[in-house]
């Protein structure tokens, strides 16, 4: 990474694997932190989560596209933490590092000799970020966590789908946990400037899912109404959802009474019809409203309605496939597609960071992003660097 990122003075020791932890580490790397990804001799599990495989057209079947999605801007160091010599390498990294991330089962680091107490003995300023499946305490803290399980147990699947509970099409529980950990770590780094001490940041896949229940959670907590499957329409606003046209569906978000009147005028509805006069009435009569709107929309193709609605100031959009999304100039203009050189696969396109700063640091070509590393790609160089650190700090060196 470039040395101009906001976290360019931060060294992250990343012990995580699979997705939630690597997502957190990648977000810190996107902000300029140096991230050393410590992998077992067999590597992160997600390297084998394919097909499809990165570089398959060149004959390579070594790293999955899944792994490539969450490991840019990192260096790979292979360590067997059960080997005393490799444990000493990790010890040296901990002494020099600013952040350590882990997503082992509770107690695993303790058994490896790297309890929180020892980590802070080695480096009192170390910020420790930890992700579990269901939390670090409580009656089910022992359970292993995977995304699909957390989506179901955390209630997200119960409000997703059309005819039966459905998981979100991306591993959202993992991604939310990673995002939450990254933002907690940044807060702890900020606090460290004041206290000169690191702290432990905990989060979990379950916490990430429950933490985004938003109005669906308060429907139960405050309104004592159990939300059901929402389908393609908002359960508390209407019209707000996906509507069929003569060709393909369009999405419409009529989020206020003012927008309702503009929408009704644009498509030829009576805004004051008794069934639809207010949002409360429109939600109560949603099936009728959807039927009326789709009856109107069936007369013209999707592009006709999108042009009309957008020109009228009504929020509306397509339902794009992934190939269409990445071909869309608006996506590319936001720096959301990175062009990266990989040592084995050549030029690759990867999804970029969602953050941009006022000097366009992350979209204007001023940052050199690192491709996801090959297993152990940086081991030799990092070991040499650590040996130099140890030499510098030895009594004979006088430092």
Keywords summarizing the entry:
399 residues; alpha/beta; Rossmann fold; formyl-coa transferase, domain 3; six-stranded parallel β-sheet; three-stranded antiparallel β-sheet; 11 strands; 38% helix
Summarize, please.
The protein is an alpha/beta fold. About 40% of the residues lie in helices and about 15% in strands.
Report on the structure:
This protein has 399 residues and is an alpha/beta fold. It has two domains: 11-212 and 329-397, Rossmann fold (3-Layer(aba) Sandwich), CATH 3.40.50.10540; 240-319, formyl-coa transferase, domain 3, CATH 3.30.1540. It has helices spanning 20-30, 65-68, 84-96, 108-111, 116-122, 147-153, 172-195, 205-210, 214-221, 257-267, 279-284, 286-297, 302-312, 322-327, 329-333, 379-393; strands at 11-14, 34-39, 75-78, 99-102, 127-132, 200-204, 240-243, 250-253, 316-317, 337-342, 346-351. The longest helix is centred in the middle third of the chain and has 24 residues, at 172-195. The chain has 16 helices and eleven strands. Strand 1, helix 1 (20-30) and strand 2 (34-39) form a beta-alpha-beta unit. The strands form three sheets. It has a six-stranded parallel beta sheet with strand order 3-2-1-4-5-6, with helices on both faces. A three-stranded antiparallel beta sheet has the order 7-8-9, covered by helices on one side.
């Amino acid at each position: 990474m470039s040395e101009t990122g906001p976290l360019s003075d931060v060294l992250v020791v990343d012990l995580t694997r699979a997705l939630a932890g690597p997502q957190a580490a990648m977000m810190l790397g996107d902000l300029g932190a140096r991230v050393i990804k410590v992998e077992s001799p067999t590597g992160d599990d997600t390297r084998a989560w394919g097909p499809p495989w990165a570089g398959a057209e060149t004959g390579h079947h070594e790293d999955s596209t899944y792994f490539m999605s969450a490991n840019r801007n990192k260096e790979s160091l292979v360590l067997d933490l059960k080997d005393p010599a490799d444990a000493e390498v990790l010890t040296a990294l901990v002494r020099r590092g600013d952040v350590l991330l882990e997503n082992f089962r509770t107690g695993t680091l303790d058994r490896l000799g790297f309890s929180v107490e020892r980590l802070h003995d080695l480096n009192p300023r170390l910020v420790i970020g930890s992700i579990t499946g269901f939390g670090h305490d409580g009656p089910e803290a022992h359970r292993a966590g995977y995304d699909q399980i957390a989506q179901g147990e955390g209630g997200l699947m119960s409000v997703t789908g059309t005819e039966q509970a459905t998981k979100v099409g991306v591993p959202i529980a993992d991604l939310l946990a990673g995002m939450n950990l990254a933002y907690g770590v940044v807060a702890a780094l900020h606090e460290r400037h004041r206290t000169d001490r690191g702290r432990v940041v905990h989060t979990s896949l379950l916490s990430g899912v429950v933490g985004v229940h938003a109005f669906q959670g308060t429907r139960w907590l405050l309104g004592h109404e159990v939300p059901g499957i929402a389908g393609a329409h908002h359960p508390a606003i209407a019209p707000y959802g996906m509507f069929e046209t003569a060709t393909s569906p369009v999405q419409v978000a009529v989020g206020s009474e003012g927008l309702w009147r503009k929408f009704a005028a644009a498509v030829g509805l009576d805004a004051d019809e008794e069934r639809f006069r207010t949002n409360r009435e429109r939600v109560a009569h949603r099936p009728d409203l959807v039927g009326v709107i789709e009856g109107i929309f069936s007369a013209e193709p999707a592009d006709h309605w999108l042009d009309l609605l957008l020109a009228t100031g009504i929020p509306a959009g397509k339902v794009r496939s992934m190939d269409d999304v990445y071909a869309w100039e608006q996506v590319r203009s936001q720096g959301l597609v990175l062009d990266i050189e990989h040592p084995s696969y050549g030029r690759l396109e990867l999804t970029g960071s969602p953050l941009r700063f006022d000097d366009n640091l992350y979209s204007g070509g001023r940052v050199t992003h690192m491709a996801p590393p090959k297993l152990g790609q940086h081991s030799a160089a990092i070991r040499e660097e650590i040996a130099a650190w140890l030499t510098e700090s030895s009594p004979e060196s006088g430092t």
